[in-house]
Design goal:
The complex is a heterotrimer of chains A (410), B (355) and C (298). Chain B is mostly helical and 355 residues long. Helix content of chain B is 75%, strand content 3%. Chain B is globular. In chain B, 49% of the residues are buried. With 298 residues, chain C is mainly alpha-helical. Chain C has one domain (2-121, 134-223, 246-253). Classes of the chains: A alpha/beta (410), B mainly alpha (355), C mainly alpha (298).
Chain lengths: 410, 355, 298
């Protein structure tokens, strides 16, 4: 019995140690994903979107003559695994890493700068990383939590017709990512004259009856801004509804805004009226998605079911698309040499006006602003699906910049 | 024949009390030392060195937990929290007061030891599962405190960046440099633990584990020694946390949550409770297991499943194998890898004879 | 003032109801410990697997709700039997940490098998109960919580009767007290172990239905298992009424902490307030309010 175990383990280690050989004319990109950890419901839909776009690009001949090989490693949303994944990506020769998870981007920041490999973290913290001077190798490439907070306040302002004297509740997941926007929100509350009260939901966030009761019955908020992850958004929808709080007075940050959350909350009818912030386009009606479907059809296969979870899947496509654009820019600058991480970093800083048929906001990434402008869209749950309520916008840029500068000084 | 135990005669107390009295043991340890210090770092690729670094850090943590759980018999699920205490203490000293690594490290360890002693106070009243749950409560409370008290956590992000440690002016940053750096600490920890267990304090710990009432009757102050066990174990944990922080370059409490505590418990159970070598085995095994599974799946998985579903299967399979192996070890070989090693060694003790 | 009182009443009612739902999970834990002295760290995962089975029958096989619940019950009972046979029988007599780690390993295995077999996305377990809360004066009472509380109390009554009055229950208590004496009296100890695990399966199945409906069924349903510990420590590891009382205390303390203490400390106290209470209780009364006193003999 023990002998068999020993033999099997040894066999696996020996055979597995034969690493795959890199083909010619190939660019390696590293992707971290979480398929079994706390955010697995996101990862299992988001990462396939990434891979599908890369497949599409390769099917069309690659970028500048190179094929792209995306190496995905699941890190279960744990930092040591994430670090080990990064080392492995480095070994494979990755010139660009897609980092999944807020604690991971913090843990890797120093190493990335030392190793000169750029990393992106769309939709995750840290907001301070938008500062391209302080963190030259980290690219949020999507609205950070500070920008999302500012945009949420702007949206609430439009919905309520003004903020002075109103009561806003901030319902958030009690971890660093959830707490990040509080400073910006407090600034705005002083600036615009509204009352802000924060309600923390400790992880894992499967029970928040008391917070919901407080918001609805004691504090009686005029609007709720929610920043929750994993299971908690759907629980929050249920709980708020249970205490009789109207969901059309709730706007959620980007990680509480997916079809999966609505379905887990009990379905579209239950969540009617809920506002959801997005950093990528929502829905199946985009040219690039049609192309991906056509590609699968050519292979005689059905489009993957992950495409139905459009919020997450499209975010994966956005991620891959911006990566490909950066690589494209890098290759244009250095057509004959083997590109390095440094070149891809410069490639990022040239991205502007790339919208992929509306799926991607019109980001403008520069060497100072690695975030691209902090653009979001708001959708609402209406009649069984997400309906677009606003176009791409960003708000209170001056306040957000102030915080970025303050953070850079630390 | 190889493992000759007779004919080895000592003429001084010092020689008799040496850690490795047998010549075969000395040769083996010497060979391992040469291998680890001279051969490995210059032949392996940086990626593999990074894995060895992770294992080194885990070994120190596992040694600490084994002192508490394996030698003293007090179950603790709070190891991760003590690591984060050490990590944040050192990070705060390094960043706020500008202390160098060599001063911040002992502070981290001592603070973790103090907190560990406090968490260990319930061990005087309760045992077994109740104590495990009390330490679980300690873990959660410490996590919450670090998360919320910005004085400790350094701000909303709860993440403190630390500068690279420096030795004689050389900054230790690459994996190879880290390798030597961490290996030195591992050697210190291993030798320290072995000596601790041979000393009076170590014997008191073992007595408490075996039968604490009897130990009290013969005059061992179990109050003091239980707290000491918690303190020493937490000191190790604090040092582990500090090393991990300096390895990564940033301190973040999300790296030290309950799953880390459970991982370390798994390490010492699979490796073997109450043995130094067991801690090392366990740390190596548990750290390498996810990596090995991934390699195996990537080598074989393509044969069995389609590409997309392999990506979904690998991580779930890893969990299943992790849990399954723990159960299998517990059912089949309760004394862990250490017992397996002892069986091999006993075989060679009398080789080429049968008994 | 009336508003404050209303808020307090709301918190209390929420706390009581959710506390009874915690008791539902703790009951499974207590049953196993009471009969077999084994500690089940995988209680949350049992609830999760039960939820998966029920929801899979509902969605994939389009079975009616009652049939899905029966399938869930059957599956969990079978699972309990199988587990006892394969794993736990080998661990009798081992030190406590071995059993604890074995169930922790089991928890990991179940957490891997769940999403592997049934998919990682969250599934909705629809019960024929409305989502709109009953409004009783200032109180908002969600029907699902009433159902959960009712199920808990029903189990309390059933198990109370079982252990006190029925033959099998008394036999199980005898086994828990001293296995050797029970065997000497002619009681088939192994059969009662299997029965205890089967009963845990039943409790887990219903817990899975109720909690799955409340939270949605996916791998994170297993996280409710963490709530078990303060509940059983406060109530006593092997006491059925203790599980109920412990659950009530934990539920009330959580809500009161979230409502009144959170605003002062920036939130998050609700998770560890029960643990703090638990430590205090452990120092004063180590075996819980209704637990059995273990007298150590030298």
């Amino acid at each position: 019995m023990r002998g068999i175990l020993a033999v099997l383990t040894g066999l696996a280690l020996v055979v597995g140690a034969a690493a795959p050989v890199a083909a010619q004319k190939e660019i390696v990109v590293g992707l971290q994903c979480d398929r079994t950890g706390a955010t697995q419901t996101v990862g299992v839909n988001l990462c396939p979107g990434y891979h599908d776009y890369i497949k599409l690009v390769n099917a069309k001949g690659g970028v500048g003559g190179y094929k792209i090989r995306a190496v995905e490693i699941d890190h279960e949303y744990k930092v040591p695994q994430g670090m080990e994944a990064y080392e492995r990506h480095k070994k494979e020769g990755a010139v660009l890493i897609g980092v999944y998870g807020t604690p991971h981007i913090y843990a890797m920041a120093q190493k990335l700068t030392e190793d000169r490999i750029p990393a992106t973290s769309p939709g995750f913290g840290s907001a301070a990383a938008a500062d391209g001077q302080r963190y030259p190798y980290i690219f949020p490439i999507a609205a950070t939590y500070w920008s999302q907070g500012a945009a949420a306040v702007e949206f609430v302002k439009k919905q309520l017709g003004g903020l002075k004297g109103k009561k806003l509740a901030y319902l958030f997941f009690d971890n660093p990512a959830g707490r990040e926007p509080i400073a910006v929100l407090e600034d705005l509350s002083a600036k615009e004259g509204f009352q802000l009260k924060t309600f923390a939901v400790p992880p894992p966030g499967v029970e928040m009856g008391a917070q919901a009761l407080d918001i609805a019955q004691r504090y009686r908020a005029d609007f709720v801004i929610a920043h929750l992850f994993g299971r908690s958004p759907s629980v929050s929808i249920k709980e708020l509804k249970r205490v009789g709080y109207p969901l059309r007075k709730v706007v959620s940050f980007v990680w509480g805004s997916a079809e999966a959350d609505i379905e887990a909350a009990g379905g579209w009818a239950v969540a009617e009226g809920y506002y959801a912030m997005q950093y990528a386009g929502v829905g199946t009606d985009f040219p690039v998605l049609n192309e991906i479907r056509a590609m699968y059809k050519q292979e005689g296969k059905e489009a993957p079911k992950e495409m139905m979870s459009t919020v997450y899947y499209n975010r994966g496509v956005l991620w891959a698309a911006i990566h490909v654009e950066a690589i494209r820019n890098a290759l244009k600058a250095k057509p004959d040499v083997k590109i390095t991480g440094e070149d891809v970093k410069n490639g990022f800083e040239k991205i502007s006006g790339f919208t992929l048929g509306g799926l991607v906001p019109p980001l403008k990434i520069t060497s100072l602003d690695h975030e691209g402008g902090g653009l979001v869209q708001i959708y609402q749950v209406k009649g069984g699906k997400f309906e677009k309520v606003t176009d791409w916008f960003s708000a209170y840029g001056d306040v957000v910049q102030k915080h970025i500068h303050e953070a850079a000084k630390k | 024949m190889i493992h000759r135990e007779c004919g080895v005669l000592k003429t001084s107390y010092g020689a008799d009390m040496a850690l490795y009295p047998l010549p075969i043991a000395r040769w083996t340890v010497g060979a391992i030392g040469v291998l680890m210090f001279a051969v490995v770092p210059f032949t392996l690729h940086e990626y593999y060195l990074s894995i060895v670094n992770l294992v080194s850090i885990a070994v120190i943590g596992a040694l600490g937990l084994n002192i508490l759980v394996g030698y003293t018999g007090q179950i603790s699920v709070g190891h991760g929290a003590f690591m984060s205490v050490g990590a944040y203490t050192a990070a705060n000293f390094a960043v706020r007061l500008g202390w160098p690594f060599w001063a911040a490290l002992p502070m981290g360890g001592l603070m973790a030891a103090a907190v560990g002693a406090v968490v260990g106070i319930p061990s005087l009243r309760i045992k077994g599962l109740y104590l495990a749950i009390a330490t679980l409560a300690g873990q959660l409370i410490i996590e919450w405190t670090i998360n919320h008290v910005t004085f400790i956590s350094g701000g909303v992000q709860a993440s403190i960046e630390v500068p690279r440690p420096a030795l004689f002016g050389i900054s230790i940053a690459s994996q190879r440099q880290m390798y030597f750096f961490l290996l030195a600490f591992v050697v210190l920890a291993v030798v320290g633990t072995m000596n601790l267990m041979r000393s009076r304090v170590g014997r008191a710990f073992i007595a408490i584990r075996d039968h604490d009432i009897a130990a009290e009757i013969i005059g061992i102050n179990i109050f003091r020694y239980k707290l000491l066990a918690f303190a020493i174990s937490s000191f190790y944990a604090g040092v582990t946390g500090v090393l991990y922080t300096y390895y990564l370059g940033v301190a973040n409490y999300e790296q030290f949550q309950i799953n880390v505590s459970i991982d370390y418990l798994a390490m010492i159970i699979i490796g073997g409770l109450g043995s130094v070598l067991g801690s090392i085995f366990g740390a190596v095994f548990v750290t390498l297991l996810p990596i090995a599974i991934r390699y195996a799946m990537e080598a074989f998985g393509g044969l069995l499943f389609s590409e997309a579903s392999v990506r979904n299967i690998i991580p779930n399979l890893r969990l299943i194998l992790f849990g399954g192996l723990i159960i299998m070890f517990l059912v089949v070989e309760p004394e862990g890898l250490n017992r397996l090693w002892r069986n091999i060694r006993n075989y060679f003790r009398v080789w080429p004879f049968a008994y | 003032m009336a508003e404050d009182l209303g808020f307090f009443a709301l918190l209390m009612s929420n706390g009581i109801l959710i506390g009874l739902m915690y008791s539902l999970i703790a009951l499974g834990f207590v049953l196993v410990y009471k009969a077999t002295d084994a500690i089940n760290f995988a209680q949350g995962e049992f609830v999760m697997i039960a939820g998966f089975v029920v929801v899979a029958s509902l969605l994939a096989y389009k079975a009616p709700l009652w049939l899905a619940i029966v399938v869930g019950l059957g599956a969990m009972i079978g699972f309990g039997f199988g587990l006892e046979r394969v794993m736990l029988r080998r661990l009798i007599g081992r030190p406590i940490i071995a059993v604890v780690m074995a169930t922790i390993g089991l928890a990991a295995v179940l957490r891997g098998i769940g999403p592997l077999t049934w998919g990682a996305d969250t599934k909705n377990l629809a019960l024929p109960i409305s989502d709109e809360p009953f409004v009783l004066g200032p109180l908002f009472v969600p029907p699902i919580q009433i159902l959960g509380a009712a199920v808990s109390l029903a189990f309390l009554a059933a198990f109370g009767w079982f252990f006190l009055k029925s033959r099998k229950g008394i036999a199980m208590r005898a086994v828990a007290d001293s296995q050797q004496v029970a065997m000497a009296m002619g009681i088939n100890v192994e059969r009662y172990f299997a029965l205890a695990w089967a009963m845990t399966g039943v409790v887990s199945a219903l817990g899975g239905v109720v909690w799955g409906s409340l939270l949605g069924v996916d791998v994170h349903l297993s996280l409710v298992g963490f709530k078990v510990f303060p509940v059983v420590i406060l109530g006593g590891l092997d006491s059925v009424p203790g599980a109920i009382l412990g659950g009530l205390i934990v539920g009330i303390v959580e809500n009161v902490a979230a409502g009144y203490i959170d605003p002062y400390v920036g939130g998050g106290t609700k998770d560890f307030a029960p643990y703090v209470l638990m430590i205090v209780a452990l120092m004063i009364r180590p075996y819980g309010i209704f637990g059995k006193r273990i007298i150590e003999r030298v």
